Protein: 10 kDa heat shock protein, mitochondrial
Organism: Drosophila ananassae
Amino acid sequence: MASAIKKVIPMLDRILIQRFEVKTTTAGGILLPEESVPKEMQGVVVAVGPGARNPAGAGHLSVAVKEGDRVLLPKYGGTKVDMDDKHEYVLFRESDILAKLE
């Protein structure tokens, strides 16, 4: 029995990101195949884990991004997450994110 995912809470230093949509049509209205369109390297942070465990003691190290931040992503990597809607979600470790965009 399949059920819709209501909320995803990443573990430790993992971050759930929604990739920006890539335009698949040209200005003239021509549809481009998915293979010819490069992946979008930007996204929005949807959910953030509590952070990596602190090796010096109890607690977690804080994460540098928060929900709603725009980030620059690597071309390859991450784990695809299927959440039964039209958007593409990818799970990354904090160290995999290249930059925070303002």
Remarks:
- The mean pLDDT is 83.
- The beta strands are 14-19, 42-48, 70-72, 79-81, 89-93, 99-101.
- The two ends are 42 Å apart (CA to CA).
- The CA atoms of residues 51 and 57 lie 14 Å apart.
